[in-house]
Amino acid sequence: MQLYTFIDWFFTIASLLITILLGIYLNGAGCLIGLLLYLIYPVMIEFSYNLMSAKQEIIIKTMPEIPIVYHDDYNITACGIEKWHPFDSCKYGNVYRQIRQKINDKHLTPEMLSRGTFLFLGMSKWYLFKMCYSAYASTLIELPVFFLPGAFLRSCLLDSMLLATSGSIYAARLALEKGWAINLSGGYHHASLNNGGGFCIYPDITLVVNYLKKYRNLNKIVIIDLDAHQGNGYQRDFHHDSSVYIIDFYNPYIYPGDHEAEQAIDCSVHIDRDTTDEQYIKLLQKNLEKHLQNDMQFIIYNAGTDIMAGDPLGNCCISPAGIQRRDEVVFKWANFKKIPILMLLSGGYQKENTFAIGESILQLIT
């Protein structure tokens, strides 16, 4: 990945320099050569990278003392540009430090998986190619960064999300060994294999499901999505897949309102600003008891905290204590049914969410 980033920046800078030099020493029309190179170099990079990158095995060389997956590079720091978005892009590190104050056990630091692995798990080559251009990527992350070089956007923002996606897959592997695992990022539930949106670029949930199927031969996987928003990305990927069972609690009055994707949901529960902690937990208990079957082999738990009161995008009113109770209920049911569970952090758009996440994780693991 370091070589890929170096080549990416090299071609970006070289093409811009050629454009400037041709404009100075030749004429304005000569700039077109440099601009053409600037536009087509991603084609060459993607072609060579896809050609040379092979599928790899998902191996954990040394088992961590605690099944938590985290990397410092999860946190997005793009020269302050990330502050334009309501998402707290450094919450992962803040949650990690909060946990480390009470637990010093060694966690798992993931590596970036190869492009060949992502392609084997179903990622669209065309979609990855389009991500080379800031004009397209800016529509998915909802920031006006179309004017930035693609190399800058990838190295400062997209690579962090891709690393977190790798972390979700490693965490799934870890959950199979330990019975549970938490990736302190991920949960990009608006992303599908060939599209993205809502600040979700890479479809880690879909890729985890495909990893479990292709690498581990599992055929009964349940997704419990308790983020405030509908998980339309993976729902589009598994619309006609009976091996994936989807439970989704979401606010139907906010983004994305994807009615076509809703058809993939097996258990749909609508919540809103009037849903109290007591009502929410009662609904959760009732539906998990009804829908979690003994033959289910793996749980992907998308634990978004944007259902918290005050969150600017979730528009719900669950308290921090309700968040802790929610996570406890899901983990207790997974333990009762003896189903391995992977927890992903997903959404949560205010500083208060960070503390609630950390406290909830601490109560789960201590």
UniProtKB/TrEMBL annotation:
GO molecular function: histone deacetylase activity; hydrolase activity
Membrane-spanning segments: 7-26, 32-52, 135-153
A single GO cellular-component term on record: histone deacetylase complex
Entry annotated with the keyword Oxidoreductase: no
InterPro entries in UniProt: HDAC_classIV, His_deacetylse_dom
Domain Histone deacetylase: 157-355
CDD domains: HDAC_classIV
Keywords from the named record: Hydrolase, Membrane, Transmembrane, Transmembrane helix
Domain of life of the native organism: Eukaryota
GO annotation (BP), single: epigenetic regulation of gene expression
Protein name from the UniProt record: Histone deacetylase domain-containing protein
Organism of this sequence: Paramecium sonneborni
Biological classification of the source: Eukaryota, Sar, Alveolata, Ciliophora, Intramacronucleata
